[in-house]
Amino acid sequence: MIPRYSRKKMSILWSDEYKYNIWLEIELLACEAQSKLGNIPKAALKKIKEKAKINIPRIQEIEDKTKHDIIAFLTSLEELVGEDSRYIHLGMTSSDILDTTLAIQMSYALSIIINEMNRLADVLKEQALKYKHTICIGRSHGIHAEPTTFGLKMALWYEECKRNIERFYNVFREVSVGKISGAVGTYEHISPKVEEYVCKKMNLKPASISTQIVQRDAHANFISTIAIAGSLLEKIAVELRHLQRTEVLEAEEYFSQGQKGSSAMPHKRNPISAENISGQVRLLRGYVIAAMENNALWHERDISHSSVERIIMPDATVTFDYILNRTIELVENLIVYPKNMKKNLDITQGLYASQKIMLALINKDLKRQVAYEMVQESAMKSWNKKISFKDTILKNKTIMQHFTKKEIESFFSFDEIFEKVDYIFNRCEIKK
Question: Of 50, 66, 121, 394, whose CB count within 10 A is highest?
């Protein structure tokens, strides 16, 4: 079970201790494979396994001098293992360790993310069902359009959440790839069987082909997929920020006991979680550019991608993990105001029914533009004079020659909307 706020667990994946332990595991598995091939004596393998340990202060001390992390790591092992350390890292290059480790870190990060995305989907589904028939005004261009339901907003996000989960599964398969193929990927000094053995033990696939590194298009896809999923979180946050505006107040972030909204104004209840989510998604989008630029390197490899990845990989995963959990909490504890939704719906005094009346006129064999202008005349009268749209229709003799009063009354009903909501929910497979 992933904790509600799993930032700490996600950040552990990128800690020095976690990284060095994966490095050691890869090296030991490679030694096992080499021993099976007859390249390392069994006695030497036994000694390596017994004596090889992680000493982080010593590794860092050596790296301060060598300016090379893998060499510092191997030197520390050499000090502990002794003469048999010559068999460690046999025929391998630094990126064999670094890229295979990064694959493990990315796949584990995705496991956490997929688990939490499923939690978000569950919360969205629950809220969609809860507010399935809670009527509210739909807005296009920020202007009142036609009625919808608050449950449909949640259903829309639920469906997009499912698509993001599928993307994460796809990218999981793409990045779960290791390589132990030597300095330029030709296996000149190491058997492909070593790579196959290590990758199998670590639940990775061997790269079909590599240079000194696994190619970075997959890593760019990893970051891009996180950013795309982040755009869903921002979509939710932006909508709820708009709905929390004082003039609207159809929904509101949960405001805990003792929470403060402003240092100056004691009355303030600000949408700080939603604003925080919106802000941090900007970082995720910025990382996509850097990840894409990492794919084009000199010849069989340069090091320009490495420094970038040391920043964007931990930051992107930890940031996304953080705002994903905040989004789950935001949606789960959202305060919804159905009465305000109905109040806002009525602000235009029934103008939301304009299309329904126009289409009914078209069904009476009127030309579309004629019907449009007839309804618009009453709509603009209602808008300008702030009077009931239904009353303007009932007083419009040109329109009323086609309808009874009972028919006009029916145009302001929500029954048809609710029927279509059931249809949409069934198509999205949103059921209790």
Answer: 121
